[in-house]
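Before a computer can learn anything about folding, someone has to put a protein's shape into writing. The outcome of that step, for a single protein, is printed below:
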Amino acid sequence: MRLTITLAEAYNEAPYPVNGHGKRNVQVLKEAFEMIDGEVDSDMYGSGSVIEQCQDRFAQLLGKPASVFFPSGTMAQQIALRIWSDAAGSKKVAYHPLCHLEIHEQDGLKKLHHLEPMLLADMTRPVLLSDVLGMPDDVACVLLELPQREIGGQLPDYAELEAISAHCRAKGIKLHLDGARLFEITPYYGRSAEQICSLFDSVYVSVYKGLGGIAGAVLAGEYDFAEESKVWKRRHGGDLISLYPYILSAEYYLERRLPRMADYYEGAVQLAELYNGCHASKWTVPQVPVSNMFHVHYDLSKEELEPILIEVTQQTGVGFTHVLRPKNETGCYYEVSIGDRYAELPQEKVREAIRLLGERLNSLDRQTQSL
């Protein structure tokens, strides 16, 4: 056993990593292209059968008249909110304070489009109807992220979504779905992607998160919305000469993984139950997952927990996470996202790792109490 190793190294070297579909290496692209005829023509600046057929397929899947393939979700979502802002003649848009546009995009929405975000709800729960009812009437668009990643993938009740949708339509406020992980919530809601999207005026989905493609995103809505988004896509520099590596891999992994979303969800529920039964100073958020993801919180600092995770990972071969995020001075957490890997793990190994983790936490408790 090595004397010094980082958590990321321990995770990457572990034979049984818990998260995701597998390593994001060149094999992901090679596998997607293995059965593709080399004579298939690429797309060219947003046109061609490759991209058009893909866009038609996603439009049908999401229940919208049209969709547009984008190289990134950041580009797609900023453009969606800009379109709705221009249509309403208002710079005001509303979303959760931990929305991706607010915390991960270097204020792109404000600097590039001069939009004025209003923050709804607080940092511990999803947006609810009561939050939307408290907005000014001149808000152009409300963005809802389902699931809300930064709080463990939490979701509002479906009836709450229906009420928000009905209110926004009655008030003429557009409702946009950040559905980066849309397909992963269909098992919990017991509804298809099309049914969920019917509540929204526009929808963004990622083709690389739960689906595991190379990169890219799809933005869907009415025909006029889609055509205007193509104009903005060109203005953003999003019409690369060819996007076919992203497109063909998206279609390949969509076919492979869409039918497995219920398996990922059930795996997350199973693993969270093991975590929650392990030790009182550790719990999951949500307690019972509502998608394939959740967060694991500890009443330990990053400095206290990291060597324990490394030790258990090296002893059992089960990789919990590659990074810890500080929550406060005395706590930290990490994200769990279930994909193909989890079903392939020896479950006795997972149970052994969780049991050993609990033992190490109990031992730390005894040491602390004796001081």
Observations:
- The chain has two domains: 7-22+260-370, 43-241.
